[in-house]
Design goal:
Blueprint lengths: L1 E4 L14 E4 L9 H7 L1 E5 L2 H6 L10 E4 L4 E4 L6 E4 L1 H11 L3 E3 L12 H20 L7 E3 L23 H14 L7 E2 L5 H9 L4 E4 L1 H7 L2 E4 L2 E4 L19 H5 L2 H8 L4 H26 L3 H12 L7 H10 L16
Parallel strand pairs: 2-3, 7-8, 9-10
Antiparallel strand pairs: 1-2, 1-10, 4-5, 5-6, 11-12
Helix pairs in contact: 3-4, 5-12, 7-10, 9-10, 10-11
Protein name: tRNA-guanine(15) transglycosylase-like domain-containing protein
GO molecular function: tRNA-guanosine(34) queuine transglycosylase activity
Organism: Actinidia rufa
């Protein structure tokens, strides 16, 4: 999983305003720590529940047994027994781990859910943050981040912690815009679970700073590379005789040393293919974050957005939701858009 900081510097001394942050649940599949250092990763974020059981354990929310006022009960992936995680225990575990940034326990619901369950989740999350604050024993050493819930309901909350759950893109960007407008300007605005390059550029234009997602490495395991034009599917038969690098403009060690044809051969037969693509995809996202940040600092962000969109949508078919979001952000992308673009995805 990947966390990205675009604009704001954070707590630890090693983190700069241009930092790339890598998020893991114990391990990065297919990559070594030394490779992460080569890429420039400076933060590792771990999942409290996973690490409380054992590093690299995985759990699905499908195995979520129950949510009560006391806490969240999961089915342990280790022995199948139920495990209750309370706000207090969540903070205790994170205090013990010693992370620079720790997260409050929240009541998570899918954004596609409507009705009283959304309101229940929002108010419970608010009550739990009070319990997390009270349980936090290392406030001078660890930054406790709250998570706001509220689904897509603009009345309940700004829901920045409740996105990436299947909502349509038009609802997605509108909630991000509402959230960033309401949250303090001197605090990092973290959109959880968001990691597509296009989404990151749009959210950054709307005022968000931090993101996390499994997308770059997960899509690599399916044989897909991230490139300025979008994605490149290395398993496709047309790649078999293509002697170009994944991205001719990329300076990562994969693009310097391997051809598309070679990686095509690997991704269909050998685990090394997904390892190489994971490295490239992380490198791509790191460069995207650096370029985003530089453009903001240099006052060239609108130009950066237009250039990014022109590469990804050379025919001018920029999705309508992106056009609407950029209008709210005050960025003119009319030169990037075909006259009657109406794509929603």
């Amino acid at each position: 999983m990947l966390m990205l900081v675009v604009e704001n510097g954070m707590h630890c001394n090693s983190l700069t305003e241009r930092s790339w942050v890598l998020v893991v649940t114990g391990t990065i599949k297919g990559l070594m720590t030394s490779q992460l250092e080569e890429i420039g990763c400076q933060i590792i974020l771990g999942n409290t529940y996973h690490l409380a059981l054992r590093p690299t354990s995985e759990v699905s929310l499908l195995h979520l047994a129950d949510i009560t006022e006391k806490g969240v009960t999961f089915q342990s992936p280790v022995d199948g027994k139920p495990m209750l995680l309370t706000p207090e225990e969540s903070i205790e575990i994170q205090n013990r781990i010693g992370a620079d940034i720790i997260m409050a326990l929240d009541d998570v619901v899918r954004t596609t859910i409507t009705g009283p369950r959304i309101e229940e989740a929002m108010y419970r999350t608010l009550r739990w943050i009070d319990r997390c604050i009270a349980a936090h024993k290392r406030p001078n050493e660890q930054n406790l981040f709250g998570i706001v819930q509220g689904g897509l309901d603009p009345v309940l909350s700004y829901a920045i912690g409740g996105l990436a759950g299947g909502e349509d893109k038009d609802s997605f960007w509108r909630v991000v815009a509402q959230c960033t407008a309401a949250l303090p300007e001197d605090k990092p605005r973290y959109v959880m679970g968001v990691g597509y390059p296009l989404d990151i550029v749009v959210c950054s234009a709307l005022g968000a700073d931090m993101y996390d997602c499994v997308y770059p490495t997960r899509t690599a395991r399916f044989g897909t590379a991230l490139v300025p034009e979008g994605v490149l599917k290395l398993k496709h038969r047309t790649m078999a005789d293509d002697t170009r690098p994944i991205d001719p403009t990329c300076t990562c060690m994969v693009c310097k040393n391997y051809t598309r044809a070679y990686i095509h051969c690997l991704v269909t037969k050998d685990a090394m293919g997904s390892q190489l693509l994971s490295y490239h995809n992380l490198y791509y996202m790191m460069k995207l974050s650096r370029d985003l940040h530089s453009a903001i600092i240099e006052g060239q962000f609108p130009e950066f957005v237009r250039s990014f969109l022109q590469k990804m949508f050379p025919k001018g078919d920029v999705p309508e939701w992106v056009c609407n979001a950029m209008e709210v952000a005050g960025i003119d992308i009319s030169l990037c858009c075909a006259p009657f673009s109406s794509s929603q995805d």
